[in-house]
Amino acid sequence: MGRESTQKETYNIIAAVTLAHHKVSGGNSFVVEAQNEDEQKQIMLDIAKAVNGDVTKTSNGILIILKG
Amino acid sequence: MGGQESIISTDNITLILTAMAMGTLARILVLKEDYRQYPSYPNGYMIHIFIGFIASTLGAVFVPALMASNWTAVTFLSLAIQQFRDVRKTEQESLRKLENTEFTPRGDAYIDGIAKTFESRNYIALVVSISTAAAMQIYKAPMLILDVGLGAITGFIILFLLKRFSKGKKVGDIAIIKEAQIEVTESKLLVDGIFVSNLVGTDNAQKMLLKEAFAVTIEPNEDHYRITLDNFGQRKAILFEATRTIGVKRYHYARKDFESGKTIIVIVPLIRDMNKLIQAVKKTPLLESVKKSHALMDANVTSGE
Fold it and tell me: Complex ipTM, two decimals?
């Protein structure tokens, strides 16, 4: 959420929901590979709701869930 | 000590009571409960009126004490100052503790401004009380009613002058606040074409923002007002007043656009009233700690070189 509780805005990446053609390596975040775009959206929603996070979509289609 | 000497004279009683009443009245008159709903009613009110009453009492007894060559009376004032500083500290502590319970935090700059205002209002009560007592002591009108009337008039004049002096400006005085258009493209939120956030990737968030969000732009009247409006503490204060007035359902953003100098506020409110939002932003006080005098920056005031 756009909450500016401190001057420094820090967001943690909670999870990334990818598709088969995405190459994600390493990192501390939880990465889930979905079978298709519908499943990708659904998983993203499940995680975002669970952690009350915000979602951004990268230009290559990876959905990233963040929390401030 | 003889019994007669220790009894206070009727003149002094009149003087002390009038000064106390004027000082307390001054505190009540500057204690306003406006759209900000602060201080809270009734307990917040009672605390401040009572401290104002104590301040007035200290001021009221100051003049008779001096007239009786009681020079230690000056220490009353240092006691008062210490007490008022405590008022500031208490306000700061109390407001900081509430930070986590608000829709958005007030921010340290706003808290500092509020606490200073409360401290200075007690000085108003003290000065009004001393002025009333001094006027009554100096003129010593022959009739009681004239004596009290003269003291009251002096008290009101001093209150008027102090109120004028301590009155701060508001955001609406230095900027134009307008309703703005919200757009969502993919996971980006744009207001009047200006990027605000890219954290709206879900369909629900996009729908909510498009359907329910309100956005306003704050455009400074002069370029140098950007220094004040772009200040983080000032933006927090604006966002706080906006969210306090119309509530927040989910998202709230305060962003600045360096190119146009505009500040953008976006809220998904609980109460959908654009006029209230614009009024809340307009009436947000300009914080004393972030104000800058443009005229002083231009002129070579002190060095003379």
Answer: 0.70
